[in-house]
Write a structure and sequence with these properties.
The complex is a heterodimer of chains A (221) and B (65).
Chain A: E1 2-10, E2 27-32, E3 35-42, H1 50-64, E4 69-71, E5 77-78, H2 81-90, H3 92-102, E6 105-114, H4 129-154, E7 160-168, E8 171-180, H5 184-197, E9 201-209
Chain B: H1 3-29, H2 47-63
The chains are: A alpha+beta (221), B mainly alpha (65).
Protein backbone atom coordinates (compact mmCIF):
# COMPACT_ATOMS: atom_id res chain seq x y z
CA UNK A 1 0.00 0.00 0.00
CA UNK A 2 1.72 3.20 -1.14
CA UNK A 3 0.82 6.85 -0.69
CA UNK A 4 -0.08 9.36 -3.38
CA UNK A 5 1.15 12.79 -2.27
CA UNK A 6 -1.03 15.84 -3.02
CA UNK A 7 0.62 18.62 -1.09
CA UNK A 8 2.72 19.75 1.83
CA UNK A 9 0.79 22.09 4.12
CA UNK A 10 0.74 23.91 7.42
CA UNK A 11 -0.37 21.53 10.13
CA UNK A 12 -2.26 20.32 11.94
CA UNK A 13 -5.07 19.34 9.54
CA UNK A 14 -7.97 18.17 11.66
CA UNK A 15 -10.43 16.94 9.01
CA UNK A 16 -8.73 16.34 5.68
CA UNK A 17 -11.42 13.99 4.38
CA UNK A 18 -13.91 16.59 3.14
CA UNK A 19 -13.03 16.05 -0.52
CA UNK A 20 -12.40 12.64 -2.09
CA UNK A 21 -8.99 12.01 -3.59
CA UNK A 22 -7.94 10.36 -6.85
CA UNK A 23 -10.01 7.21 -7.60
CA UNK A 24 -12.50 8.13 -4.83
CA UNK A 25 -9.82 7.53 -2.18
CA UNK A 26 -9.85 8.96 1.36
CA UNK A 27 -7.38 11.78 1.95
CA UNK A 28 -5.50 12.03 5.23
CA UNK A 29 -2.74 14.10 6.73
CA UNK A 30 0.61 12.64 7.79
CA UNK A 31 3.12 14.59 9.84
CA UNK A 32 3.51 16.73 12.93
CA UNK A 33 5.13 19.88 14.27
CA UNK A 34 3.35 22.22 11.93
CA UNK A 35 4.25 20.47 8.67
CA UNK A 36 1.96 17.82 7.17
CA UNK A 37 1.60 15.92 3.91
CA UNK A 38 -1.83 15.30 2.38
CA UNK A 39 -1.96 11.77 0.99
CA UNK A 40 -4.26 8.93 -0.04
CA UNK A 41 -3.52 5.21 0.07
CA UNK A 42 -3.48 3.07 -3.06
CA UNK A 43 -2.78 -0.62 -3.58
CA UNK A 44 -1.47 0.15 -7.04
CA UNK A 45 -0.82 3.31 -9.03
CA UNK A 46 -4.24 4.81 -9.84
CA UNK A 47 -5.30 5.26 -13.46
CA UNK A 48 -4.43 8.66 -14.90
CA UNK A 49 -7.24 10.39 -16.71
CA UNK A 50 -8.98 13.76 -16.72
CA UNK A 51 -11.04 12.86 -13.63
CA UNK A 52 -7.86 11.96 -11.72
CA UNK A 53 -6.23 15.29 -12.60
CA UNK A 54 -9.23 17.30 -11.44
CA UNK A 55 -9.60 15.20 -8.27
CA UNK A 56 -5.93 15.82 -7.45
CA UNK A 57 -6.40 19.56 -7.88
CA UNK A 58 -9.65 19.66 -5.91
CA UNK A 59 -8.02 18.06 -2.87
CA UNK A 60 -5.35 20.75 -2.82
CA UNK A 61 -7.83 23.56 -3.51
CA UNK A 62 -10.03 22.39 -0.63
CA UNK A 63 -7.17 23.19 1.75
CA UNK A 64 -5.72 26.35 0.26
CA UNK A 65 -8.43 28.59 1.70
CA UNK A 66 -7.31 28.37 5.30
CA UNK A 67 -3.60 27.44 5.17
CA UNK A 68 -0.48 27.68 3.05
CA UNK A 69 -0.14 24.69 0.71
CA UNK A 70 2.75 23.56 -1.45
CA UNK A 71 1.36 21.36 -4.26
CA UNK A 72 3.30 18.22 -5.12
CA UNK A 73 4.23 17.34 -8.70
CA UNK A 74 1.45 15.06 -9.97
CA UNK A 75 2.46 11.42 -9.67
CA UNK A 76 4.58 11.63 -6.52
CA UNK A 77 4.14 8.35 -4.68
CA UNK A 78 5.87 7.41 -1.43
CA UNK A 79 6.33 3.88 -0.16
CA UNK A 80 4.72 4.26 3.27
CA UNK A 81 4.12 6.59 6.24
CA UNK A 82 7.61 6.00 7.67
CA UNK A 83 9.26 6.95 4.37
CA UNK A 84 7.07 10.04 4.08
CA UNK A 85 7.81 11.14 7.65
CA UNK A 86 11.52 10.71 6.95
CA UNK A 87 11.17 12.93 3.86
CA UNK A 88 9.31 15.60 5.85
CA UNK A 89 11.90 15.52 8.62
CA UNK A 90 14.82 15.59 6.23
CA UNK A 91 13.53 18.54 4.21
CA UNK A 92 11.67 20.43 6.95
CA UNK A 93 13.69 23.65 6.69
CA UNK A 94 13.48 23.77 2.88
CA UNK A 95 9.75 22.91 2.72
CA UNK A 96 8.88 25.40 5.49
CA UNK A 97 10.74 28.14 3.60
CA UNK A 98 8.84 27.29 0.41
CA UNK A 99 5.54 27.42 2.31
CA UNK A 100 6.45 30.86 3.65
CA UNK A 101 7.10 32.07 0.11
CA UNK A 102 3.52 31.28 -1.03
CA UNK A 103 1.69 32.05 2.22
CA UNK A 104 -1.28 34.36 1.70
CA UNK A 105 -1.05 34.18 -2.09
CA UNK A 106 -2.65 32.22 -4.93
CA UNK A 107 -1.59 31.51 -8.48
CA UNK A 108 -3.44 33.13 -11.38
CA UNK A 109 -2.90 32.00 -14.96
CA UNK A 110 -2.95 34.24 -18.01
CA UNK A 111 -3.15 32.54 -21.39
CA UNK A 112 -2.97 34.49 -24.63
CA UNK A 113 -4.14 33.52 -28.09
CA UNK A 114 -3.80 35.45 -31.35
CA UNK A 115 -6.99 37.06 -32.57
CA UNK A 116 -5.83 36.40 -36.14
CA UNK A 117 -2.94 34.63 -37.86
CA UNK A 118 0.43 36.33 -37.36
CA UNK A 119 1.03 38.73 -40.23
CA UNK A 120 -2.67 38.97 -40.96
CA UNK A 121 -2.51 36.73 -44.03
CA UNK A 122 -3.04 33.04 -44.68
CA UNK A 123 0.13 30.95 -44.38
CA UNK A 124 1.80 29.69 -47.52
CA UNK A 125 0.74 26.02 -47.81
CA UNK A 126 4.14 25.01 -49.19
CA UNK A 127 6.70 27.46 -47.81
CA UNK A 128 10.34 27.29 -48.81
CA UNK A 129 12.84 26.54 -46.09
CA UNK A 130 13.80 30.21 -45.87
CA UNK A 131 10.17 31.39 -45.73
CA UNK A 132 9.43 28.85 -43.02
CA UNK A 133 12.37 30.00 -40.90
CA UNK A 134 11.53 33.69 -41.38
CA UNK A 135 7.91 33.01 -40.39
CA UNK A 136 9.08 31.12 -37.32
CA UNK A 137 11.38 33.94 -36.28
CA UNK A 138 8.58 36.48 -36.78
CA UNK A 139 6.13 34.43 -34.71
CA UNK A 140 8.70 34.08 -31.94
CA UNK A 141 9.46 37.80 -31.93
CA UNK A 142 5.79 38.68 -31.91
CA UNK A 143 5.09 36.30 -29.01
CA UNK A 144 7.98 37.72 -26.98
CA UNK A 145 6.73 41.23 -27.61
CA UNK A 146 3.25 40.22 -26.43
CA UNK A 147 4.73 38.61 -23.31
CA UNK A 148 6.53 41.87 -22.47
CA UNK A 149 3.36 43.91 -22.95
CA UNK A 150 1.42 41.55 -20.65
CA UNK A 151 4.11 41.41 -18.00
CA UNK A 152 4.57 45.19 -17.93
CA UNK A 153 0.97 45.59 -16.76
CA UNK A 154 0.51 42.51 -14.58
CA UNK A 155 3.90 41.96 -12.90
CA UNK A 156 3.50 45.00 -10.59
CA UNK A 157 0.36 43.34 -9.19
CA UNK A 158 2.13 40.07 -8.34
CA UNK A 159 4.77 38.78 -5.94
CA UNK A 160 6.38 36.63 -8.62
CA UNK A 161 5.87 35.65 -12.24
CA UNK A 162 6.59 32.65 -14.43
CA UNK A 163 6.15 33.20 -18.16
CA UNK A 164 6.37 30.72 -21.02
CA UNK A 165 6.52 31.90 -24.63
CA UNK A 166 5.20 29.53 -27.33
CA UNK A 167 5.01 26.55 -24.99
CA UNK A 168 2.49 25.30 -27.56
CA UNK A 169 2.16 26.51 -31.15
CA UNK A 170 -1.37 27.88 -30.61
CA UNK A 171 -0.46 29.57 -27.32
CA UNK A 172 1.99 32.48 -27.78
CA UNK A 173 2.09 33.33 -24.08
CA UNK A 174 1.21 31.29 -21.00
CA UNK A 175 2.03 33.06 -17.76
CA UNK A 176 1.53 32.41 -14.06
CA UNK A 177 1.43 35.08 -11.36
CA UNK A 178 1.71 34.64 -7.61
CA UNK A 179 -0.85 37.16 -6.33
CA UNK A 180 -1.76 38.18 -2.78
CA UNK A 181 -5.28 37.00 -1.95
CA UNK A 182 -6.39 40.57 -1.37
CA UNK A 183 -5.38 41.59 -4.91
CA UNK A 184 -7.09 38.80 -6.91
CA UNK A 185 -10.02 41.02 -7.92
CA UNK A 186 -7.70 43.85 -8.90
CA UNK A 187 -5.58 41.44 -10.95
CA UNK A 188 -8.58 39.88 -12.74
CA UNK A 189 -9.91 43.35 -13.58
CA UNK A 190 -6.50 44.32 -14.95
CA UNK A 191 -6.53 41.26 -17.25
CA UNK A 192 -10.00 42.19 -18.56
CA UNK A 193 -8.81 45.75 -19.18
CA UNK A 194 -5.62 44.57 -20.87
CA UNK A 195 -7.60 42.11 -23.02
CA UNK A 196 -9.82 44.96 -24.23
CA UNK A 197 -6.77 47.10 -24.98
CA UNK A 198 -4.85 44.37 -26.82
CA UNK A 199 -5.87 44.33 -30.46
CA UNK A 200 -3.84 41.38 -31.68
CA UNK A 201 -4.43 38.88 -28.86
CA UNK A 202 -7.14 37.77 -26.49
CA UNK A 203 -6.27 37.08 -22.88
CA UNK A 204 -7.92 34.59 -20.56
CA UNK A 205 -7.37 34.59 -16.81
CA UNK A 206 -7.68 31.26 -14.96
CA UNK A 207 -7.58 30.44 -11.29
CA UNK A 208 -7.14 30.96 -8.44
CA UNK A 209 -4.90 27.88 -8.52
CA UNK A 210 -2.75 26.45 -5.77
CA UNK A 211 0.78 27.80 -6.33
CA UNK A 212 1.90 24.99 -8.67
CA UNK A 213 4.30 27.26 -10.60
CA UNK A 214 5.94 28.76 -7.51
CA UNK A 215 7.21 25.77 -5.56
CA UNK A 216 10.73 26.32 -6.81
CA UNK A 217 12.91 29.40 -7.03
CA UNK A 218 12.63 29.50 -10.85
CA UNK A 219 10.62 32.22 -12.48
CA UNK A 220 10.85 34.97 -9.89
CA UNK A 221 10.22 38.22 -11.58
CA UNK B 1 -31.81 24.17 -27.59
CA UNK B 2 -31.80 27.92 -28.19
CA UNK B 3 -28.90 29.61 -29.98
CA UNK B 4 -28.14 31.50 -26.77
CA UNK B 5 -28.01 28.28 -24.73
CA UNK B 6 -25.79 26.67 -27.39
CA UNK B 7 -23.44 29.68 -27.27
CA UNK B 8 -23.26 29.47 -23.48
CA UNK B 9 -22.55 25.71 -23.71
CA UNK B 10 -19.80 26.34 -26.29
CA UNK B 11 -18.24 29.01 -24.11
CA UNK B 12 -18.43 26.74 -21.05
CA UNK B 13 -16.71 23.95 -22.98
CA UNK B 14 -14.05 26.37 -24.26
CA UNK B 15 -13.45 27.62 -20.70
CA UNK B 16 -13.21 24.03 -19.47
CA UNK B 17 -10.72 23.13 -22.21
CA UNK B 18 -8.56 26.16 -21.43
CA UNK B 19 -8.72 25.30 -17.73
CA UNK B 20 -7.79 21.69 -18.44
CA UNK B 21 -4.75 22.78 -20.43
CA UNK B 22 -3.75 25.08 -17.59
CA UNK B 23 -4.30 22.24 -15.12
CA UNK B 24 -2.17 19.85 -17.19
CA UNK B 25 0.68 22.34 -17.48
CA UNK B 26 0.65 22.92 -13.75
CA UNK B 27 0.33 19.31 -12.59
CA UNK B 28 2.94 17.93 -14.98
CA UNK B 29 5.50 20.77 -14.90
CA UNK B 30 4.87 22.48 -11.58
CA UNK B 31 4.61 21.35 -8.00
CA UNK B 32 7.33 20.41 -5.58
CA UNK B 33 9.23 17.22 -6.40
CA UNK B 34 9.57 15.49 -3.09
CA UNK B 35 11.78 12.70 -4.35
CA UNK B 36 13.35 11.55 -7.57
CA UNK B 37 11.01 8.94 -8.98
CA UNK B 38 7.54 9.82 -10.18
CA UNK B 39 5.73 6.51 -10.47
CA UNK B 40 2.62 7.88 -12.14
CA UNK B 41 2.59 9.72 -15.39
CA UNK B 42 -0.06 11.26 -17.55
CA UNK B 43 1.19 9.87 -20.85
CA UNK B 44 -2.31 8.61 -21.56
CA UNK B 45 -3.66 12.14 -21.77
CA UNK B 46 -3.72 13.12 -25.41
CA UNK B 47 -2.14 16.58 -25.34
CA UNK B 48 -2.41 17.04 -29.09
CA UNK B 49 -6.13 16.35 -29.02
CA UNK B 50 -6.53 18.86 -26.19
CA UNK B 51 -4.68 21.51 -28.19
CA UNK B 52 -6.96 20.93 -31.14
CA UNK B 53 -10.06 21.18 -28.97
CA UNK B 54 -8.95 24.54 -27.61
CA UNK B 55 -8.15 25.74 -31.11
CA UNK B 56 -11.54 24.63 -32.41
CA UNK B 57 -13.29 26.30 -29.49
CA UNK B 58 -11.42 29.54 -30.20
CA UNK B 59 -12.39 29.42 -33.86
CA UNK B 60 -16.05 28.79 -32.98
CA UNK B 61 -15.95 31.74 -30.63
CA UNK B 62 -14.39 34.02 -33.23
CA UNK B 63 -16.93 32.94 -35.88
CA UNK B 64 -19.79 33.81 -33.53
CA UNK B 65 -18.73 37.46 -33.32
Amino acid sequence: MSLLLYAIADGPVDAPGGVEGVAASAVRAVGADGLVALVSEHERAPAVDEAALWAFDEVIESHMGDRAVLPARFGSMVQDVAALQALLDGRRVELSAKLERVRGAVELGVRAGWRDLPGGSAPDPEPTGTAYMLDRVARNRRARDLAKRIDRVLAPLARATHCQVLARPAVPVSAAYLVDRGRVGEFAAAVVELDAATEDAELVCTGPWPPYSFTEERGDG
Amino acid sequence: VSAEAATIATRAQAARDVSLLDLLDRLLQGGVVIHGDLTLCAADIDLVRLDLRVLVAAIDKAAGR
